[in-house]
Design brief:
- This protein is mainly α.
- It is built from 5 helices and no strands.
- The longest helix is centred in the last third of the chain and has 10 residues.
- It starts with 9 loop residues before the first helix and ends in a 9-residue tail after the last helix.
- The chain binds zinc ion.
- Zinc ion binds next to helix 2.
Length: about 80
């Protein structure tokens, strides 16, 4: 019985995959008041030529959240850790 195959744990691995933490923007979004979030979401999905990344950065800053412009850029492009699957 030395050659006994080890059990296939693939299914467990898949189920155990830790959820990726949100990016800085996603995290900061969770820190602001719930009532502020729809406003933020609308701003994030508005054209960057109308609502700039630095405007969003300042919006966060007034709510005591420090978020870098590059984090906002990747969040808007959905290339951050909270985007996709
Ligand atoms: Zn994000």
């Amino acid at each position: 019985m030395a050659a006994q195959a080890s059990p296939d744990l693939t299914e467990f691995y898949k189920l155990s995959q830790p959820k990726k933490p949100p990016c800085r923007v996603g995290f900061a979004r969770g820190q602001v008041k719930a009532g502020d979030r729809p406003q933020l979401d609308a701003a994030l999905s508005t054209d960057q030529g109308i609502i700039t990344n630095s405007a969003i950065q300042q919006w966060f800053a007034t709510r005591k959240q420090e978020v870098s412009v590059s984090a906002i850029v990747s969040h808007r492009k959905a290339t951050c850790t909270c985007g996709g699957d």
